[in-house]
């Protein structure tokens, strides 16, 4: 029996439990905290801002009492605390030398609290396969089954099949490019899964509610982070395999997916304009009894008669149809379902089709592709390998060696790509990042302009648990503020503004109150809904009045990143006017807890979670972020090759 954190614990109880351990934890972090994650959190939001409810214009001045009248220290003080280390390789010191951590064999939940180890499917499956072969051989000897197989030989040859016989040359090229692109897509997808190796059907990611995992149960530590929960993959499996290398994995995954979708679009155009679709789409109900007949023949090891030059047998036809016209589109749709920008915009869909449902279905699609590839390759090489290769790669019907040599040449290319991808990524991560952004960036930038409306969630949607993430602040400055309940806290807002200010918590609370219930989207894949209270960033913008040359807003944290230096992140200034962008000082009706960013954190709901800076101590309006930190637009961008635009 495995133990989990209670899935029904109210957020307020979790917050109280966390606070009771906070003061001890913050003193003990120090150098040992390099294991802890650095990532801030974000998601869907509901704006119930009294400022907007009152009907006042967003351009109105907030109460003058909110301004201290003091002049903040120069913003260069924040920049001096940043790490300017160049990161152009992935080496032993990368990401704070995060140690390797391996999970457990894949497990599926059975019932309420029992888990089935899927490795048992290997011996159990082998035994079942032998039994199925024996049963199929016995069935073939029964007169009724023999008559069924004779009446339904396994292949339905449609009328006019001679006109679309064989596989045109473009099918062979499409077959090759599809496999070439799927290799990095699948491998990088496995690395993304390893960053949060749990799947859920619920909208929230409460420990103990996962249905599939490759990690141990979540420990009872109230400050356990999502990064601590991540696992390592072998370099030959993941792309890359290093623990918490999700930034690079996403560039591979999203970038190559744009090429895969383009290749798929070309395939759809050609398959319908050339009539090749008739070889992939069932034309009658006869396909189902013939598919059953083909399965019996395969299991009896007496293969169905080959008519592939004219038509695939019905079992192949169903498998190809599902792969091409169901699984591939579903992979695209479920991928979009994990985008914070799209989910906050298309609320009617995302209210029913949650990120966790999308992520679980996306994983099941991956499983289908893997099973299909293994079964497809196995049958190709065990039935009539030279004839199959000729049809697939040479568009000829026969048993010559021509198709085999074309296949062999393509296999060499696939192996080179497989072997070289990870070392190239480690040696040239910035190139991978820039190429990935060049491919996915245009679409990603479109998503950023999808401002969302408030009101999607209510208090009944609040998650019982929201994962902690971040390398917790452990400096004497922060410890002193925490010890005195942030009585001496001052938020410095400076840079290219007409009225730089310092605001304490009382003055922040005196500003027009902004409240929203929103869903969090972490880059690692977990999610949760929480209620945030604070001040809209539009109110801050109105207060300080940015100068025309200010194009970016930089948020600085009390916490350091894994490589040292203060954590920071830059956001486009236009997103500061979005309905669901705010500085939160309350969470779920209570003061913001230590683990979630006390005393102040950012929420920008068209972006992924790591951009939602926690433990904020300063805000700076700038023209460009090129001279700040490593110049990439944020700590994770500088050090772990994340993107400064991450709306998907």
Structure explained in plain terms:
With 648 residues, this protein is an alpha+beta fold. It has a domain at 12-84 and 95-101 and 456-640: Sulfite Oxidase, Chain A, domain 2 (Alpha-Beta Complex). The protein has helices spanning 11-28, 50-53, 76-80, 94-97, 121-140, 143-151, 169-195, 246-273, 287-299, 314-336, 340-345, 347-350, 355-382, 385-394, 402-427, 429-447, 476-483, 505-510, 537-544, 635-640, and strands at 107-110, 114-117, 198-199, 212-213, 491-495, 501-503, 514-521, 527-536, 552-560, 566-572, 581-587, 590-591, 601-604, 616-622. The strands form three sheets. A five-stranded mixed beta sheet has the order 6-5-14-9-10. Strand 1 (107-110) and strand 2 (114-117) form a beta hairpin. Helix 7 runs antiparallel to helix 8 (246-273) and helix 7 (169-195) runs parallel beside helix 15. Residues 1-72 have low confidence and may be disordered.
Structure keywords:
alpha+beta; 5-stranded mixed beta sheet; 5-stranded antiparallel beta sheet; Sulfite Oxidase, Chain A, domain 2; 648 residues; elongated; disordered N terminus; single chain
Q: The biggest beta sheet, please?
A: 5 strands, mixed
The side-by-side strand order for the widest beta sheet comes to 6-5-14-9-10
Q: In the CATH scheme, what's the topology name of one domain?
A: Sulfite Oxidase, Chain A, domain 2
How far apart the termini lie comes to 38 Å
Spans with pLDDT under 50 lasting ≥5 residues? 1-72
